[in-house]
Amino acid sequence: VVRLENAGPIWTTSRPPGHQTAAVSVGTGNAEQPMGDIIIINEETGSIYGASGYINEGSHERYVSVSVAHPEQAYRSLTLVNHGTLIGDVILGSGPNFVELGPESWTWGDVFLGTGDSVVTLWAGAYVDGAIRGEGRTNRLVVQAGPPGEEPEIHWAEWFIEGFNAFEIASGHWVFPEGIGGRLRNGETLIRRGAALELDGIAELDLETGAVLAGNGTFIGDVKNWEGSVRPGESIGTLTIVGDYTHDADAVLDIEVDPSKPAGDPEEADLLYVTGKATIHGGKVQVTLLGPATYVSGQRDFTILKADGGVEGAFDEMDVGGELSPFLEFALSHLGPDSVTGADEVIFTIIKTASFSSVAETPNQKEVAGALDDMADGAPPDDMVTVLGELQTLDEDAARDALDRMSGEIYTWHGRLAQQAADGVARSVRSGRIPLTRGEDRLWFAQDANVVVLAGDKAYAGGQARTFAFTSGYALLQRDSGARLGVFGTLMSTDAAMPRRGSAMTGSGWALGVYGRYAGSWGYVDGLAAYGSSGYHATRDVTVGSEARRAEGSFGATVAAAAADAAFRPFDTPLGRAEITAGLTWMSSARPQVKEGGAGSLSLIVDGARADSLQGRVGVRLTPAPMKTLMGMDARPWL
């Protein structure tokens, strides 16, 4: 940052022709070195005098008070604030430039803004002897007045400006002469709260292509909106026209509405207030819904245009931003050739046309939608007002997805996970005890890992579940006859993901049990019984429109399981053997009530549940004779 604050006189002497004779010169003169932020403040007692000289050979004599040293000098920004006196032109570079000419300041000369985008703030009482000229794509003129006295003051903008396409009336009552006022027909004009603007020498303000009239202030005079846009508020507020308003076929009235505000609140909707008559020859009303979504019960009316002299005619089109909702409709009192005319207000209306249950298709969706309809018709908790409002603005598919995410479907998987864990324990016990309990090898270890993909359909979400079991056992009794009896313990872990519902569940636990086996040349019969306990943690990411919350619930569960298997060997040869197998597994798991937290009223209280299953299986097992591996070990694969 380069900063110059001046409270006294700065002089310069004449230079040879071809050199700018600026009292304050910015840059190196060759434009090769870009600069950062440049701040020049000329205080009330400051004076910057440009000396007599020639800008270029053959040009007329000029004075330059502040200038870039090279026309192509680049910088991040340049701020020039003048509260004192500048004698000579101000020549700035490619910007962006911020120029403020304070009250009682004197600028003797022209202000050249260069090709950068610039903002010029002129205070009432600022004297500019020359012109203010902008060449950039966007140049904004801001006019300000100090606090009014006992009598409101009217300020005349007697400056000459060129190249401006945006105008801001920040404070005060201003009169723009024709030279400035004529530029409003294609520019953007913002009148802030408490400020007023009128035109001198122009009968009315015509808004043509690209023109905008916006703000919370007052325009004094008639307005004819041919192809422009009128935007009351900043963002929500009232724009007053002291005169008549005409809205043509290619014009737009841009309105913002906030249904979250109580009825009658001045910030519930933009308002265009016309003291005269409003005449509508078609055109468009563009409505943007703001604020947190709010549930609409029945209908809600918003006044968006009021004319003391009455409203005549109707708009051709209304567009409400956002997706089309199956639960809401929007209406406009003055829309189409059959609409009401002659009233003094234009009313925008939001109408509830359907319940949440109207889009529900699956059992889960219907249950959730019914509960939400009951809640909405009563007195919903404060944190559900936004949820209900968000749901009311969604399209059908998004609404069904939100209903599914609220359902808590992940908890119905607990029985499946318990069954999968029980199967894993049974597999690890069988694989561990059979090969290692020979002779005196009574202690054995085994593990089992399994992944199950659960298919989903329209009604229910699919997903993936993984289980892991590590089991250790000890044979208390084993006989050469093939009879064995032992005990075992298992550590288990489980995790499941249900992406379509934004849900997941993880768990870990233990199980203790006994096993037995009787085997002979004809086959074998074995069985096991176990009891265990696990802890689970579930998460649900519930998304309803822009409302996103995470619900979490933890619970403990118990499981009891028993399994029996038998195999019969029709033949057993040196080349291999075949077995006909059959098995039966019983499992019973109990889950207590779960109270979720973290998601406010979207957190669920899940009823306790018991899951019981009986699973049978039959098959054929083919086992070849043992074979040697490359490591010299025996391997006996089976199918």
Brief characterization of the structure:
This protein has about 650 residues and is mainly beta. The chain is built from five helices and 52 strands. The chain has three domains: about 1-200, no CATH class; about 355-405, no CATH class; about 410-635, Autotransporter beta-domain (Lipocalin), CATH 2.40.128.130.
The CATH homologous superfamily of the largest domain corresponds to: Autotransporter beta-domain
Quaternary form? single chain
Identify the CATH class of the largest domain.
Answer: Mainly Beta
Order of adjacent strands in the largest pleated sheet: 1-4-9-12-15-18-21-23-26-29-32-35-38
**How much β-strand is present in the residues?**
over 45%
What class would the helix/strand composition place it in? mainly beta
Cα Rg: 41 Å
At CATH level 3, the topology of the largest domain is: Lipocalin
How many domain units?
A: 3
Low-confidence stretches: 53-59
The CATH architecture designation of the largest domain is Beta Barrel
Q: Terminal Cα separation, in Å?
A: 79 Å
Q: Give the count of helical stretches.
A: 5
The major beta sheet can be summarized as:
13 strands, parallel
| Mean of all residue-level pLDDT scores | 89
Count of DSSP E strands?
Answer: 52
Question: Overall 3D geometry?
Answer: elongated
Helix fraction by DSSP (H/I, runs of at least 4): 10-25%
Explain this structure.
This protein has 639 residues and is mainly β. It folds into 3 domains: 1-202, no CATH class; 356-406, no CATH class; 412-635, Autotransporter beta-domain (Lipocalin, Beta Barrel). It contains 5 helices and 52 strands. It has a 13-stranded parallel beta sheet with strand order 1-4-9-12-15-18-21-23-26-29-32-35-38, with no helix packed on it. A 9-stranded mixed beta sheet has the order 19-22-24-27-30-33-36-40-39. It is elongated, with a radius of gyration of 41 Å. Residues 53-59 have low confidence and may be disordered.
